[in-house]
Amino acid sequence: MEKQQLHRGFGLWASLSLVIGTIIGSGIFFKQGSVLQVAGNTTTAMWAWFAGGILTLASGMSVAEVGSQMAKTGGIYHYIEQLYGRTLGYLAGWMQVVFYGPAMMGAISAYFGVLFVAMFDLPSHYSIWIGMAALACVGLINSIPNRFSAGFQMVTTVIKLLPIIALIVFGLFFGHHDALGQTVTAIGHTSGGGFGVAVLATLFAYDGWVTLANISGEIKNPQKTLPRAIVFGILLVIVAYVGVSFGVYRSLTANQIASLGENTTLAMATNAFGYWGGRLLSVAILISLLGTLNGKVVSFPRVLYAMADNGDFLFANIFRSLHHRSKTPNAAIWLMIGIAFLMIFFTNPDQLSNYAVFVTFLFYILVLAGTFILRKRDPQGLNRSFSMPLYPLVPIVAIVGSLYIEVSEIMHDFQGVLISVLIVLLGYPVLLNLRHKQK
């Protein structure tokens, strides 16, 4: 019997939209105040947004080089398995399937519900159900041929870019303040942390680019398309984020931004375009969250599918199967959505996703270090369709930046680090059980 194959429905534009659409969620709209507060002044904050983008770009180029040589569904699960062996690869996949992926889906869905009820003045207890309904709808879109999820990603990405362009243009041409050199002096809003912590604060807004690597089996010509989409997607996001920040600093004073906090961009949009302008921005943010959620639902179940295809998951025959018409891994999609539903009901998925940052970056570091391993294995680059510029500086920057994040996490949330590590290690006895059954 011929093995079912994933449908390669993601071309360059759809892949580019997945990168941009998954990165740009709510962070750029809600992180302006917190980044400025810890930076202390607009110049440092602007450099922090730029530095966070450069660190993300260095990581993206490094992973793109690895991915161009391992164009197979599964992303870092597949990369780490090929670089370091089955055990570490399995733990990387386990982390994404039962912990990080569902927590991210749950957190985005829950946040969508909160914003939705606030916008339409609905009772707050409806937020959970609205968030779950949004996740279910995105799940349905992903359960039919992937040209629909790819199209949905492109549409939501275009829509979410419109308010970003409007904020940049307004700030550039109609702002009345000096974007650089302003200092936060408001009482009760003293800065703390400086440049390093400010960069760390921006990385939440830059997260999500690596999800494209999980769907290599559905990308047309992945050896060339994946590196291009990751690199150009991150570059566009850097321009958007730095541009929005510059526009905000031109439109509002540093003290106003620090006081407004998460409401900074909403206040700017309302001042610039009136009441309905603010409402339209809120609608754009909701659509932006749907696009980000779609990126997660497209990406993470493919890791489960890849693990099951390798026999690295319980009930592998179920989760390696594809729907006979849509060629999508529907069993994997709905299992992860089900776990996300449980997290929404019984835990705080946003907190769990924060806990997962530490172990996620541990596995990122392993992939980044893999660039040196693959260069040593193939010094002539015969199997390398994409070679990053400025090697070895680029992966070194990415690794040092990621190590800084790890140290910061240990210092700021040691309990969360322990919880995340324990959850990942719970996958090891499952792996031992699978190996025993396979003997």
Automatic annotation (TrEMBL):
Location (main, coarse): membrane
Signal peptide feature range: none
The keyword Transmembrane helix belongs to this UniProt entry's keyword annotation: yes
Transmembrane spans: 12-30, 46-67, 88-120, 126-145, 157-175, 195-217, 229-252, 272-293, 331-349, 355-374, 386-405, 417-434
Keyword vocabulary terms for this entry: Membrane, Transmembrane, Transmembrane helix
Top-level taxon of origin: Bacteria
Keyword Membrane: yes
Membrane topology: Multi-pass membrane protein
Gene3D superfamilies named in the record: Amino acid/polyamine transporter I
Location within or outside the cell: Membrane
InterPro entries documented for this protein: AA/rel_permease1 (IPR002293), AminoAcid_Transporter (IPR050598)
Pfam families in UniProt: AA_permease_2
Name of the protein described by the UniProt record: Serine/threonine exchanger SteT
Source lineage: Bacteria, Bacillati, Bacillota, Bacilli, Lactobacillales
